[in-house]
Amino acid sequence: MDITNVKQAVPFFVIASMDSSLNFYIKGLDFKLKRKWAPQGKIEWCWLNLDNASVMLQEYRHKPLDEKSGKGVSIYFICEDALTMYNRIISRKVPAAEPFVGNNMWIFWVKDPDGYNIFFESHTDVPEETTYSDWIRERR
What we know:
Helices cover 21% and strands 32% of the residues. A hairpin with a 7-residue loop joins strand 2 and strand 3.
């Protein structure tokens, strides 16, 4: 009997400031708040969606986080068009690495307020190692 049971994997980030993180993910990356837990009138946990992708955030309650909280953690969002996502993000003044082509995919990343690396990728037939600025220049 073949039954698909696991439906989704959702990254869970422990964060230092819910306000900073909500500003980054909602205003900067265009995530939507889907669920929240606010036991003392302030959001301490939430579930955010961007199209078919999700992340969960929980503010660390008791003591300050180690400055290395997001070090070494990367999440990759596979997009239909990563360049559209890039242009949307930079129009919101979120610092983002310049897209380039690697492994037949446009790829760029941003760092969230806690140091987590958020990558966006989409398939392309543009030659390997092409940068976005070179590609734009060549298209003119």
